[in-house]
Amino acid sequence: MLQVKICGITRLEDVLVLIQYPVWALGFIQVETSPRYVKPDLAKKLISYLPNRILSIGVFQDHSIQTIKQIRDYCGFSMVQLHGNEEPTFCAQLGRGIIRAFRIGQTIDWIQLGYYQSVTDYFLFDTFVDGKNGGTGQPFSWKLLKGIERFGKPFLVSGGLSPDNISKCLGTIAPFGIDVNSGVESSPGKKDSRKVQALFQKLNPA
């Protein structure tokens, strides 16, 4: 069964809409320069509304291990997602519940992926856009992921996914899950309930 992660959560009203759908996880961005940044106090409050079936994921980028652990434990994140230049040794020191994001341009560095094989729980592939780490709103060539199965690592696809292109994506590759952000928004950090509904209608047609 395809798992769905909705990222960039900033509002309680969006949480209350999303928990009505078969969502696997919600992402809370802890990168202060992001337009979807949510302070730990608010993230903790929003997480308190989640049913046990929905995971909470804190998204970090080049934070220190100490900072990640402090915020993770304070907010009660189920997992952390690393979106910067975190090395395999860094991931190993965090110890559990790690999604490692990789930005995809024209090619994939298969050797680099191998270094993270044993120190992460999931891979996530996002689009490379110069100057942006996540939230690009642009898809990459999903065909580049052909052969990823040999790693035996569950992976998520991100980057410009929306109700308009999700069927094409899933017709090209078979990920463990998808990570949707701007594709179900009216503006950064504000989810659009109609787009959310349209996404799940595409994923689960009657």
Note down, in words, how this protein is organized.
This protein has helices at residues 12-18, 40-47, 65-75, 88-94, 110-115, 166-172, 193-203, and strands spanning 3-6, 25-29, 55-60, 79-82, 98-104, 122-127, 155-157, 177-180, 185-187, 190-191. With 206 residues, it is α/β, with parallel strands linked by helices. It has one domain (3-203): Alpha-Beta Barrel (TIM Barrel). The strands form 2 sheets. Strands 1-2-3-4-5-6-7-8 form an 8-stranded parallel beta barrel. A two-stranded antiparallel sheet has the order 9-10. The longest helix is centred in the middle third of the chain and has 11 residues, at 65-75. The protein is globular, with a radius of gyration of 16 Å. It starts with a strand and ends with a helix. The mean pLDDT is 94.
Helix and strand topology:
Elements (H helix, E strand, L loop, with lengths): L2 E4 L5 H7 L6 E5 L10 H8 L7 E6 L4 H11 L3 E4 L5 H7 L3 E7 L5 H6 L6 E6 L27 E3 L8 H7 L4 E4 L4 E3 L2 E2 L1 H11 L3
Parallel strand pairs: 1-2, 1-8, 2-3, 3-4, 4-5, 5-6, 6-7, 7-8
Antiparallel strand pairs: 9-10
